[in-house]
Amino acid sequence: MALTYQVNAVGKLDTTSSLNTKQNASMASEKVSVLCGEEDEALEYDDDEYDLEAFSDADLSCEDRAPGFSDSVNGVVKPRILLMGLRRSGKSSIQKVVFHKMSPSETLFLESTNKICREDVSSSSFVSFQIWDFPGQIDFFDPTFDYEMIFRGTGALIFVIDSQDDYVEALSRLHLTVTRAYKVNPDISFEVFIHKVDGLSDDHKIEKQRDIHKRTNTDLTDAGLEQIHLSLYLTSIYDHSIFEAFSKVVQKLIPQLPTLENLLNIFISNSGIEKAFLFDVGSKIYIATDSSPVDMQTYELCCDMIDVVIDISCIYGMPNTEAGLPHDKDSMAIIHLNNTTVIYLKEVTKFLAMVCFLRKESFARKGLIDYNFHCFKKAIQEVFDVRVKVQQSRKLLNQRRWSKLTLTSGVCSSTH
Ligand SMILES: Nc1nc2c(ncn2[C@@H]2O[C@H](COP(=O)(O)OP(=O)(O)OP(=O)(O)O)[C@@H](O)[C@H]2O)c(=O)[nH]1
């Protein structure tokens, strides 16, 4: 592997490297050249206006009791994702690997969770939710446990099934959980992770998925609840499948998803790009992509590219003083694969990046792509502005309700 780096005078990363790397099974030993850093842009944009993020660090807390329903940040209630499943099914490992960059092998030493662990994930404007990791042995149908309150504020319920274990008990638990949750809140999206599939052959994986799909649907039909839709995913922390599955779960919680998809469609069709993803850089969750189908290898390449950019930025980039990040909204990277494909990464904000796949010929029109990207960024800003306005008016409405309530109770108490 040969790398040549150049860090320019202001400490911004300017890297040119060419490395022989095994990208993945299908693209083995491809020659990759990486250009990473601040771009010599012909077009000059005032990027200050795109500083969209109000970053808040992940706030991790474990609680004995169920945390309050209306936990909010800046008066905005975040959608909640519940991680449920039997003991040792892999719930905490999933959370640690996806959101804390823990290496999969380190999860072997994780202790069993004995309290509900709640975490705020607010890395970008569009990725903002809470994850509640439930201990496997918890009896949340205990009368002292207010499960109604928990399900009422839930956006998605992820039920983790250990595919390397006998899953009969897990399926009956899944059925019980889903039926109770649905009665309280029919809007929850039910996601089933058939987890730890790294130990299974491809045929075996498909067979398990089919079997679980059949059994769960039969149980729901027998209970007269055939309208409940369960989404099944084959996952493992040892590959990218867990990130892809989590991306799909998170996307369902983003109300602006159709707009983002539409914007990406317009962007790629006008720029000669084949595929574009909008990534939350920190978690490698893609929050949107254009409407063409996603194949796993493309997604894996995107994740690898983000890793390369972050690693090189961490080593050679200057930390951004505000957020303490080595990359910022001006960071970009270009990787030329030896099959004439170019992967182009550009930061949309400090935490969001666009990763595009295009042919070498199309990349000749980089000026056009950059101009279209500038328009895309502007449009994202507008979507974000609308979101902020909606949140502010909701906050105002809540405050008015509160002051009305306190006024009424004050009047009542003074008349008594
Ligand atoms: N092979 C394999 N093992 C995994 C995977 N995910 C988690 N594990 C292992 O499964 C074991 C249990 O993982 P945990 O994350 O502690 O499980 P949990 O569901 O949080 O367990 P409780 O806290 O007891 O409810 C650990 O040894 C992990 O290393 C996976 O995708 N593949």
Task: Please provide a written account of the structure.
This protein is α+β, with helices and mostly antiparallel strands. It folds into 2 domains: 2-44 and 256-388, Beta-Lactamase; 59-251, 3-Layer(aba) Sandwich (Rossmann fold), CATH 3.40.50. It has 9 helices and 17 strands. The chain has helices at residues 91-100, 147-152, 168-184, 202-222, 241-251, 257-271, 296-316, 360-363, 366-415; strands spanning 2-7, 13-21, 30-38, 59-63, 72-73, 76-77, 80-85, 116-121, 129-133, 154-162, 189-195, 230-234, 273-280, 285-289, 331-336, 341-347, 352-359. The chain has an 8-stranded antiparallel sheet, sandwiched between helices. It has a 7-stranded mixed sheet with strand order 4-8-9-7-10-11-12, with helices on both faces. Strands 5-6 form a two-stranded antiparallel sheet. The longest helix is centred in the last third of the chain and has 50 residues, at 366-415. 34% of the residues are buried. Residues 1-75 and 411-416 have low confidence and may be disordered. Guanosine-5'-triphosphate is lined by residues 85, 87-93, 107-108, 110, 112-113, 135-136, 195-196, 198-199, 236-238. Guanosine-5'-triphosphate (GTP) is lined by residues 85, 87-93, 107-108, 110, 112-113, 135-136, 195-196, 198-199, 236-238. Guanine nucleotide-binding protein that plays a crucial role in the cellular response to amino acid availability through regulation of the mTORC1 signaling cascade. Keywords: Cytoplasm, GTP-binding, Hydrolase, Lysosome, Membrane, Nucleotide-binding, Nucleus. Belongs to the GTR/RAG GTP-binding protein family. InterPro entries: Gtr1_RagA, P-loop_NTPase, RagC/D. This is Ras-related GTP-binding protein.
